[in-house]
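== Folding the chain ==

***
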Amino acid sequence: MTRDPDEPARVLVVEDDDGNRRLVRTFFEREGFRVEEAADGPGALRAVANDDIDLVVLDLGLPGLDGLDVLASIRRRSDVAVLVLTGRVDEHERVQGLDAGADDYVVKPYSLAELAARARALLRRGQSRPAVDDRLEFGELVIDLAAARASSNGGRLDLAPKEFTLLAFLAGEEGRTFSREELLHHVWGSTSHWQDPATVTEHVRRVRHKLDRVGYGQCIETVRGFGYRFAMSEEARTATA
């Protein structure tokens, strides 16, 4: 759902620590957001199901129901933007969050100003969705921009929201090469100052893997020393899956 730009964005803050949750709420409200709170996983899922939430700020270190499980459950029912807060500095655990459908993550300790800037970047991206009848077709690969889904030979590709956005952006600029920093700007609404460019590398890897299952993995090319581009060969364009 596209938010009315005149209405304040509604942010759900999911954090079990009462002090931290109130601190984030107070800061976000001063920044002009409408804020809802949840202290645990079940409360977060109820809020996403019952309210028109624009962004979820989700702490992974929740008691009872792990934050990754909450994230996976949210993704099964909603494409709402999710900004993960984690004290887990291990790269594997960060990748787990991205694989589960997180749009971005912030590692603790973080500044509230950075957190709000990341939130605004995700909300800006959500406001720039394409026209409702836009479709990109490359042989059997169809990228439906209005429905935010990609399919091959009629079968839907299991892409997380950020993976779809990355694929749609590159495919819409077929043949043009983008650096990781440019992709952070265009797809994430972010910069390398705020976000690790390795996020782009990981998302490209996962999109390629899923495209490879239907014979289109070669369409996202690495331009060594610069970045990535979507390049569909004539053979692949006319092939059937």
User: Anything to note?
Assistant: The two ends are 32 Å apart (CA to CA).
